[in-house]
Amino acid sequence: MDLGLKDKVIVVTGSAGMKGSIGETIVQAIAAEGAIPVLVDRNDRGIAYAQEFQDKGVDSIFVKTDMTEPKQIEAAVKLIIDKYGKIDALINNVGVNDGAGLDSSVDDFMYSLKLNMVSYFVMVKECLPYLKESKGSIMNVGSKVGYTGQGGTSGYAAAKGGVLALTREWAVDLINDGIRVNALIIAESWTPAYDEWIKTLDNGEEKLNSIKEKIPFENRMTEPMEIANQILFTISDKAAHTTGQHIFVDGGYVHLDRALLPAQ
Predict the structure, then answer these.
(1) Which residues are known to be catalytic?
(2) N- or C-end of the chain: fewer Cβ atoms within 10 A?
(3) How far from chain centre, in Å, is Cα 65?
Protein backbone atom coordinates (compact mmCIF):
# COMPACT_ATOMS: atom_id res chain seq x y z
CA MET A 1 0.00 0.00 0.00
CA ASP A 2 1.29 3.45 -0.90
CA LEU A 3 0.92 5.43 2.32
CA GLY A 4 1.47 8.76 0.60
CA LEU A 5 4.58 9.53 2.64
CA LYS A 6 6.91 10.26 -0.27
CA ASP A 7 9.23 13.20 0.48
CA LYS A 8 7.71 13.72 3.93
CA VAL A 9 10.24 14.72 6.58
CA ILE A 10 9.77 12.31 9.47
CA VAL A 11 11.76 12.85 12.66
CA VAL A 12 12.45 9.77 14.80
CA THR A 13 14.05 9.92 18.23
CA GLY A 14 15.86 6.90 19.59
CA SER A 15 16.58 5.84 16.02
CA ALA A 16 20.22 4.78 16.30
CA GLY A 17 19.79 1.59 18.27
CA MET A 18 21.31 -1.69 17.15
CA LYS A 19 20.37 -3.08 13.75
CA GLY A 20 16.93 -4.60 14.10
CA SER A 21 15.94 -2.40 17.03
CA ILE A 22 12.55 -0.73 16.91
CA GLY A 23 13.94 2.73 16.12
CA GLU A 24 16.28 1.48 13.42
CA THR A 25 13.49 -0.59 11.89
CA ILE A 26 11.19 2.45 11.84
CA VAL A 27 13.67 4.56 9.88
CA GLN A 28 14.25 1.70 7.42
CA ALA A 29 10.49 1.52 6.86
CA ILE A 30 10.33 5.30 6.39
CA ALA A 31 13.01 5.14 3.71
CA ALA A 32 11.19 2.27 1.98
CA GLU A 33 8.11 4.53 1.69
CA GLY A 34 10.12 7.20 -0.10
CA ALA A 35 10.03 9.53 2.88
CA ILE A 36 12.99 11.30 4.51
CA PRO A 37 14.15 9.68 7.77
CA VAL A 38 15.68 12.14 10.23
CA LEU A 39 17.55 10.29 12.96
CA VAL A 40 17.81 11.95 16.37
CA ASP A 41 19.83 9.99 18.93
CA ARG A 42 22.92 10.24 21.11
CA ASN A 43 24.56 7.11 19.70
CA ASP A 44 27.10 7.56 16.92
CA ARG A 45 25.64 4.55 15.10
CA GLY A 46 23.34 7.14 13.56
CA ILE A 47 26.22 8.50 11.48
CA ALA A 48 26.62 5.19 9.67
CA TYR A 49 22.87 4.68 9.33
CA ALA A 50 22.36 8.07 7.66
CA GLN A 51 25.34 7.42 5.40
CA GLU A 52 23.88 4.06 4.37
CA PHE A 53 20.66 5.80 3.36
CA GLN A 54 22.53 8.47 1.42
CA ASP A 55 24.59 5.82 -0.37
CA LYS A 56 21.30 4.32 -1.56
CA GLY A 57 20.06 7.68 -2.81
CA VAL A 58 17.78 8.28 0.20
CA ASP A 59 17.82 11.78 1.65
CA SER A 60 18.55 11.43 5.38
CA ILE A 61 20.46 13.09 8.20
CA PHE A 62 21.58 12.12 11.68
CA VAL A 63 21.46 14.73 14.43
CA LYS A 64 23.42 13.64 17.49
CA THR A 65 21.36 14.66 20.51
CA ASP A 66 21.24 13.85 24.21
CA MET A 67 17.50 13.61 24.71
CA THR A 68 17.78 14.57 28.39
CA GLU A 69 19.16 18.01 27.42
CA PRO A 70 16.49 20.49 26.25
CA LYS A 71 19.07 22.83 24.71
CA GLN A 72 20.41 20.00 22.55
CA ILE A 73 16.88 19.15 21.43
CA GLU A 74 16.25 22.80 20.54
CA ALA A 75 19.46 22.87 18.51
CA ALA A 76 18.57 19.59 16.78
CA VAL A 77 15.21 20.88 15.60
CA LYS A 78 16.83 24.11 14.36
CA LEU A 79 19.31 22.06 12.34
CA ILE A 80 16.50 19.98 10.84
CA ILE A 81 14.57 23.09 9.83
CA ASP A 82 17.68 24.75 8.43
CA LYS A 83 18.13 21.76 6.12
CA TYR A 84 14.56 20.79 5.21
CA GLY A 85 12.41 23.77 6.11
CA LYS A 86 9.61 21.56 7.39
CA ILE A 87 8.63 18.65 9.65
CA ASP A 88 5.74 16.44 8.56
CA ALA A 89 5.70 13.94 11.41
CA LEU A 90 7.38 13.30 14.75
CA ILE A 91 7.87 9.83 16.16
CA ASN A 92 8.91 9.96 19.81
CA ASN A 93 10.58 6.58 20.19
CA VAL A 94 13.44 7.11 22.63
CA GLY A 95 13.19 5.07 25.83
CA VAL A 96 15.10 2.83 28.20
CA ASN A 97 13.60 0.53 30.80
CA ASP A 98 16.34 1.50 33.22
CA GLY A 99 15.23 -0.19 36.42
CA ALA A 100 15.00 3.00 38.46
CA GLY A 101 12.88 1.49 41.23
CA LEU A 102 12.01 2.30 44.84
CA ASP A 103 15.53 1.44 45.91
CA SER A 104 17.02 3.97 43.46
CA SER A 105 17.96 7.56 44.19
CA VAL A 106 15.67 10.48 43.49
CA ASP A 107 18.20 11.64 40.92
CA ASP A 108 17.97 8.30 39.09
CA PHE A 109 14.17 8.51 39.14
CA MET A 110 14.21 12.05 37.78
CA TYR A 111 16.70 11.12 35.06
CA SER A 112 14.38 8.30 33.96
CA LEU A 113 11.50 10.77 33.69
CA LYS A 114 13.69 13.19 31.69
CA LEU A 115 14.70 10.55 29.17
CA ASN A 116 11.47 8.59 28.86
CA MET A 117 8.84 11.35 29.10
CA VAL A 118 10.20 14.89 29.37
CA SER A 119 12.11 14.41 26.10
CA TYR A 120 8.75 13.76 24.41
CA PHE A 121 7.38 17.06 25.74
CA VAL A 122 10.46 19.01 24.63
CA MET A 123 10.47 17.45 21.16
CA VAL A 124 6.79 18.25 20.63
CA LYS A 125 7.26 21.78 21.96
CA GLU A 126 10.18 22.47 19.60
CA CYS A 127 8.61 20.79 16.55
CA LEU A 128 5.13 22.21 17.08
CA PRO A 129 5.38 25.39 14.97
CA TYR A 130 6.42 23.29 11.96
CA LEU A 131 3.87 20.54 12.61
CA LYS A 132 1.20 23.23 12.65
CA GLU A 133 2.35 24.40 9.22
CA SER A 134 2.26 20.88 7.78
CA LYS A 135 -0.78 19.71 9.79
CA GLY A 136 1.48 16.84 10.69
CA SER A 137 1.17 13.87 12.97
CA ILE A 138 2.73 12.86 16.29
CA MET A 139 3.29 9.27 17.35
CA ASN A 140 4.44 8.47 20.87
CA VAL A 141 5.92 5.01 21.36
CA GLY A 142 4.76 3.63 24.69
CA SER A 143 4.96 0.44 26.69
CA LYS A 144 2.56 -1.94 28.36
CA VAL A 145 4.44 -1.12 31.57
CA GLY A 146 2.49 2.15 31.65
CA TYR A 147 -0.68 0.06 31.98
CA THR A 148 0.33 -3.08 33.84
CA GLY A 149 3.38 -2.13 35.86
CA GLN A 150 6.36 -4.44 35.93
CA GLY A 151 8.07 -4.16 39.28
CA GLY A 152 11.40 -2.56 40.02
CA THR A 153 11.11 0.19 37.42
CA SER A 154 9.22 3.11 38.96
CA GLY A 155 10.82 5.75 36.73
CA TYR A 156 10.07 3.98 33.47
CA ALA A 157 6.54 3.05 34.57
CA ALA A 158 5.76 6.61 35.65
CA ALA A 159 7.22 8.03 32.45
CA LYS A 160 5.35 5.66 30.15
CA GLY A 161 2.12 6.23 32.06
CA GLY A 162 2.72 9.95 31.60
CA VAL A 163 3.29 9.48 27.87
CA LEU A 164 -0.13 7.84 27.59
CA ALA A 165 -1.77 10.78 29.37
CA LEU A 166 0.15 13.33 27.30
CA THR A 167 -0.98 11.61 24.11
CA ARG A 168 -4.61 12.30 24.97
CA GLU A 169 -3.85 15.77 26.30
CA TRP A 170 -2.00 16.77 23.14
CA ALA A 171 -4.69 15.24 20.93
CA VAL A 172 -7.15 17.61 22.63
CA ASP A 173 -4.77 20.58 22.54
CA LEU A 174 -4.02 20.22 18.84
CA ILE A 175 -7.39 19.34 17.32
CA ASN A 176 -7.91 22.87 16.01
CA ASP A 177 -4.46 22.76 14.40
CA GLY A 178 -5.29 19.62 12.42
CA ILE A 179 -2.56 17.65 14.20
CA ARG A 180 -3.27 14.05 15.13
CA VAL A 181 -1.57 12.51 18.18
CA ASN A 182 -1.52 8.80 18.95
CA ALA A 183 0.47 6.30 20.98
CA LEU A 184 1.74 2.89 19.94
CA ILE A 185 1.92 0.42 22.82
CA ILE A 186 4.48 -2.38 22.77
CA ALA A 187 4.52 -5.43 25.03
CA GLU A 188 7.00 -8.19 24.16
CA SER A 189 8.96 -7.42 20.98
CA TRP A 190 11.92 -9.42 19.68
CA THR A 191 14.76 -6.89 19.47
CA PRO A 192 18.55 -7.23 19.70
CA ALA A 193 18.41 -5.84 23.26
CA TYR A 194 15.82 -8.45 24.21
CA ASP A 195 17.98 -11.16 22.68
CA GLU A 196 20.98 -9.94 24.69
CA TRP A 197 18.94 -10.00 27.90
CA ILE A 198 17.76 -13.55 27.27
CA LYS A 199 21.35 -14.64 26.71
CA THR A 200 22.35 -13.35 30.16
CA LEU A 201 19.95 -15.78 31.86
CA ASP A 202 20.96 -19.27 32.92
CA ASN A 203 17.58 -20.54 31.78
CA GLY A 204 17.22 -18.13 28.85
CA GLU A 205 15.54 -20.48 26.39
CA GLU A 206 13.08 -21.65 29.04
CA LYS A 207 12.30 -18.06 30.01
CA LEU A 208 11.79 -17.05 26.36
CA ASN A 209 9.39 -19.94 25.76
CA SER A 210 7.50 -18.99 28.91
CA ILE A 211 7.08 -15.43 27.64
CA LYS A 212 5.94 -16.58 24.20
CA GLU A 213 3.32 -18.85 25.75
CA LYS A 214 1.78 -15.80 27.44
CA ILE A 215 1.21 -13.99 24.12
CA PRO A 216 -2.25 -15.13 22.98
CA PHE A 217 -1.95 -14.55 19.23
CA GLU A 218 0.33 -17.21 17.71
CA ASN A 219 2.35 -17.48 20.95
CA ARG A 220 5.19 -15.41 19.52
CA MET A 221 6.99 -12.13 20.06
CA THR A 222 5.99 -9.04 18.11
CA GLU A 223 8.40 -8.27 15.28
CA PRO A 224 9.81 -4.72 15.09
CA MET A 225 8.62 -4.40 11.48
CA GLU A 226 5.03 -5.04 12.63
CA ILE A 227 5.43 -2.09 14.98
CA ALA A 228 7.00 0.09 12.28
CA ASN A 229 4.24 -0.73 9.79
CA GLN A 230 1.51 0.24 12.26
CA ILE A 231 3.29 3.48 13.11
CA LEU A 232 3.69 4.50 9.47
CA PHE A 233 0.07 3.68 8.68
CA THR A 234 -1.12 5.69 11.66
CA ILE A 235 0.92 8.81 10.87
CA SER A 236 -0.17 8.66 7.23
CA ASP A 237 -3.34 10.14 5.75
CA LYS A 238 -4.70 6.58 5.48
CA ALA A 239 -5.51 7.02 9.19
CA ALA A 240 -6.71 10.60 8.78
CA HIS A 241 -9.49 10.37 11.41
CA THR A 242 -7.52 8.58 14.12
CA THR A 243 -6.33 10.68 17.06
CA GLY A 244 -5.97 10.34 20.81
CA GLN A 245 -5.68 6.57 20.53
CA HIS A 246 -3.52 4.04 22.37
CA ILE A 247 -2.87 1.42 19.71
CA PHE A 248 -1.64 -1.96 20.93
CA VAL A 249 0.60 -4.05 18.71
CA ASP A 250 1.15 -6.89 21.16
CA GLY A 251 -0.56 -10.06 19.95
CA GLY A 252 -3.29 -9.52 22.56
CA TYR A 253 -0.80 -9.66 25.45
CA VAL A 254 -2.38 -6.94 27.57
CA HIS A 255 -6.10 -7.33 26.96
CA LEU A 256 -7.11 -10.80 25.85
CA ASP A 257 -8.51 -13.48 28.14
CA ARG A 258 -5.85 -15.54 29.90
CA ALA A 259 -7.98 -18.59 29.13
CA LEU A 260 -6.49 -18.39 25.64
CA LEU A 261 -3.08 -19.35 26.98
CA PRO A 262 -1.78 -22.90 26.60
CA ALA A 263 -2.73 -25.35 29.33
CA GLN A 264 0.09 -25.82 31.83
Answers:
(1) 156
(2) C
(3) 16
